[in-house]
Specification:
The chain is α+β, with helices and mostly antiparallel strands. The chain has one domain. Helix content is 39%, strand content 17%. The protein contains five helices and four strands. A four-stranded antiparallel beta sheet has the order 1-2-4-3. Strand 3 and strand 4 form a beta hairpin. It is globular.
Length: 115
């Protein structure tokens, strides 16, 4: 299990997020911690939609939060290609409690939106 400092270093939360985006990032970080999925494999990170747009990305720029998930333990919670649908369903349930949902943009990143 990661310490709070390790979690902060591995999954920093961008300052540019709205309060809803911050709530989504914290809910996802809690979910990843509770499920032992904090190892990001170098490909996991949170982005504010403004940061994402500045990168020139197409999808997720009108979301609350963008999450990359290429190569990390957390990937099956976002990418259904892994076949671990129960992880995605549990993550969706957590986000629904906050009036949000996660949607795949590509096989390597997803975005969180308000319902």
């Amino acid at each position: 299990m990661s310490t709070e400092l390790e979690l902060e270093q591995q999954w920093p939360i961008p300052d540019e997020l709205t309060s809803e985006g911050l709530r989504a990032a914290n809910a996802i970080r809690d979910f990843l911690t509770e499920n032992g999925l904090t190892y990001h494999g170098g490909g996991g990170r949170f982005y504010a939609p403004t940061q994402w747009a500045e990168r020139g990305e197409t999808y997720g720029t009108s979301s609350l939060l963008v999450v990359t998930h290429d190569g990390g333990d957390h990937a099956p919670a976002f990418n259904l290609d892994y076949g671990r649908y129960e992880l995605n369903e549990r993550l969706q349930a957590v986000l629904r409690e906050h009036g949000m949902y996660v949607e795949a943009c590509t096989c390597w990143y997803s975005a969180v939106y308000q319902t």
